[in-house]
Sequence to fold (83 residues):
Amino acid sequence: MGAFVLLLKDYEDESVVIYRFGPKEEIMGKIELNKETRMFSELEPINNPNHSNQFYFDRAAQRMARCLVKEGGLFPEKMTFES
Fold:
């Protein structure tokens, strides 16, 4: 089974970036990446019993880490994780 996570940027400044994340725009939580400490925080869980919050959080964090490390710290307005 494949995985799909949609990420939509909510906020960004020099120290943090916040994205909404989930399987679709109607079912989303919020994740924050502190660019200085490289630590992720869950600001809001996905509020849907049919979707595993940890599953989507882990994949959203993985995609954001790629932006930080491999893409020079550039965070687009919209991105996806697909496998």
In short: The chain has one domain: 4-74.
